[in-house]
Specification:
With 187 residues, the chain is mainly alpha-helical. The protein has helices at 3-18, 37-55, 60-63, 76-91, 110-132, 140-157, 175-182; strands at residues 100-103, 106-109. Strand 1 (100-103) and strand 2 form a beta hairpin.
């Protein structure tokens, strides 16, 4: 699966789960240590707000603290929709994937950044669904594509604190189960 298709599917999967969050569920805990549902969605909103800036050539220093703090306000769903729409538009611009972006970790190709964003959307779809009791199953093709990326990068992430240690699963586990386990979740 190509990146732009995978990213679109991941955005749709996360969007679907955000729309399932009931008013009484925003303070529930998630599989992400110390994060509530609100914290998790806020994290993804802030990530989406960064994407258009970085893809436009801005540096981390130029963006500064513009997206720090609570970005959800009184209407978390609406905040998600606005941020996701702006990010998706930036990703589907002609030649977006041919660009270089300056991340906090250094310069990278936009395609690498896009896969990182797609992975985050996918695994946090599972986290959000788990927290609110929604369907945790994501598109099988998306899970396979993101797993392939995660397996290539897992060595670089080891010990970084980005993810908990991998959780063992059976050799016959499906792609989604292997993905969430690789990223330290108990499927």
């Amino acid at each position: 699966m190509e990146l732009i298709e995978a990213h679109g599917r991941a955005m749709n999967e996360f969007d679907d789960r955000v729309r399932r969050v009931r008013a009484d569920q925003w303070e529930l805990g998630t599989p992400c240590a110390g994060w509530t549902v609100r914290d998790l969605v806020d994290h993804l909103v802030r990530e989406q707000l960064w994407a258009p800036e970085l893809l436009a050539g801005c540096t981390v220093e130029q963006v500064g603290d513009r997206f720090d703090g609570d970005r959800l306000g009184a209407d978390p769903r609406h905040s998600w929709v606005l941020a996701a729409s702006a990010a998706r538009e930036a990703w589907i611009e002609p030649d977006a994937l041919a660009k270089r972006v300056r991340l906090s970790s250094g310069e990278a190709g936009a395609d690498e950044y896009g896969w990182q964003m797609t992975l985050d959307l996918t695994v946090h779809t599972w986290d959000l669904a788990t927290a609110v009791g929604a369907d945790r199953q994501v598109d099988a093709g998306l899970a396979e594509a993101v797993l392939a990326f995660a397996e290539r990068e897992a060595g670089a992430w080891s010990g970084s604190g980005l993810f908990a240690d991998p959780v063992p699963v059976g050799a016959d586990a499906d792609a989604q189960t292997r993905l969430v386990a690789l990223l330290g979740r108990r499927p």
